[in-house]
Amino acid sequence: MARDSLSTKSLLMKMADPIKKFQRKRDIVTYS
């Protein structure tokens, strides 16, 4: 159970990371 939630968490982190980078890139474009 604990290992399950941990792998799910890391999977979500892997999915969220490119999204965060994209949003950050978009923010830089918006503010400059």
Automatic annotation (TrEMBL):
Q: What is this protein called?
A: Uncharacterized protein
Q: Which superkingdom?
A: Eukaryota
